[in-house]
Amino acid sequence: QVQLVESGGGLVQAGGSLRLSCVASVRPFSMYTMGWFRQAPGKEREFVAAISWRGGETSYADSVKGRFTISRDNAKNTVYLLINSLKPEDTAVYYCVANYQRYSDFPSVYNYWGRGTQVTVSS
User: What average pLDDT does the chain have?
Assistant: First the structure.
């Protein structure tokens, strides 16, 4: 059974930073494109970032470019999302996602989803 387990969320003041982590049980991890989506209360789920299975390609939503950095450690089966300069509008549940090889910013492409970790940014 595939599991994606997120951690690192919390309550932080605007301007602060967080690092989200996601440990994935997909095998082999190195062959999976990994990503992050988020969903704020009353809003649709939206793409945040993705990193290709090769690790050399990344993409970001326009709203987070320059502030968020996605990375992966294949030896640890882990993908990270470093979030800097947090804004109140970043408040959401952040979901880790995985898909075998295919690289996309469409949620329907991703076969596996974690349960999410809450990020709350106070102004």
Answer: 95
